[in-house]
């Protein structure tokens, strides 16, 4: 009997601690979101992120609030010889937070730090071929690790943000992987609201992924970059870039895929480009 009472009290205290922590986090995020960006920060966004200028005013305000939270909660560090400045942090935060608009957000909860390299960098990749395992050098623009770190090439991040119509944005790509990895592995399916949404998602995404693979094999062109045919996780990251940067063509050529991404991201980039 005593043990039962102790365990009930412990559970109540634990719930109270969790609730208190969540309340504290939300309260401090509300304060950060209410803080406007400076005129200089807004100028940097308008110079280096044309997508920001395309957003309706209400989404610009929302994005600025998310940027403040992101900048307060995430650590940045340099890989290689790069001096990170506030404008770099701002640009990464702004592009990443595009994925959070109009949705309940936990601000990429697993991401603790963002490592910036000056440009594309070398990384070791384990290769399995013909029964042998080898370490090979690979040139990378970015990486997303499920428990803590995003790695980005700064020059490619800047270029991806500066051209908002080419369907290439490594920041959107790597942070889309984070949304996918929230449950642990990268499967190409982020957290959805209910069973039916998963069923609908798998139906559309499997079909579109297989179509892209066939097109790539037949060397046919697609609005979706061929890298998306690598696996389902890359497909989701690549179509996220296409959704935000080539929405008109994506909706015209893949209406069901566009609609599914629209339902997930809760924004309609077509209206930003029309
Ligand atoms: Zn990727």
Entry summary:
With 274 residues, the chain is of the alpha/beta class. It has helices at 2-34, 39-48, 50-54, 57-73, 86-97, 154-162, 170-180, 195-217, 232-245, 247-253, 255-265, 270-273; strands spanning 75-78, 113-117, 121-129, 132-140, 142-144, 149-153.
Could you characterize what this model shows?
- With about 270 residues, this protein is α/β, with parallel strands linked by helices.
- It is about 55% helix and about 15% strand.
- It has a domain at about 185-274: Collagenase (Catalytic Domain) (3-Layer(aba) Sandwich).
- The chain contains 12 helices and 6 strands.
- The protein has a 4-stranded mixed beta sheet with strand order 1-2-6-5.
- Helix 2 (about 40-50) crosses helix 5, helix 5 crosses helix 6 and helix 9 (about 230-245) packs across helix 10.
- The model has no long low-confidence stretch (mean pLDDT about 95).
- The site of zinc ion (ZN) has 4 residues, from helix 7 and helix 9.
């Amino acid at each position: 009997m005593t043990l039962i009472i102790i365990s009930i009290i412990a559970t109540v205290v634990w719930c109270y601690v969790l609730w208190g922590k969540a309340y504290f986090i939300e309260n401090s995020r509300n304060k950060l979101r209410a803080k406007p960006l400076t005129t200089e920060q807004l100028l940097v966004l308008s110079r280096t992120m044309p997508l920001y200028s395309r957003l309706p005013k209400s989404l610009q305000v929302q994005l600025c609030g998310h940027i403040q939270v992101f900048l307060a909660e995430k650590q940045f560090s340099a890989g290689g010889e790069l001096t990170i400045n506030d404008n770099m942090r701002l640009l990464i935060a702004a592009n990443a937070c595009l994925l959070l608009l109009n949705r309940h957000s936990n601000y990429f909860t697993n991401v603790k730090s963002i490592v910036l390299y000056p440009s594309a960098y070398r990384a070791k990749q384990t290769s399995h071929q013909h029964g042998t395992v080898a370490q090979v050098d690979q040139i990378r623009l970015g990486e997303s690790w499920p428990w803590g770190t995003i790695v980005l090439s700064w020059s490619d991040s800047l270029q991806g943000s500066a051209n908002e119509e080419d369907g290439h944005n490594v920041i959107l790509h790597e942070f889309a992987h984070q949304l996918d990895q929230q449950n642990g592995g990268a499967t190409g399916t982020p957290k959805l609201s209910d069973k039916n949404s998963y069923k609908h998602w798998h139906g559309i995404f499997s079909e579109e992924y297989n179509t892209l693979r066939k097109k790539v094999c037949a060397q046919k062109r697609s609005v979706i970059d061929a890298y998306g045919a690598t696996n389902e996780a890359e497909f989701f990251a690549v179509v996220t870039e296409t959704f935000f940067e080539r929405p008109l063509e994506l909706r015209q050529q893949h209406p069901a895929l566009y609609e599914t991404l629209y339902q997930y991201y809760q924004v309609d980039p077509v209206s930003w480009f029309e």
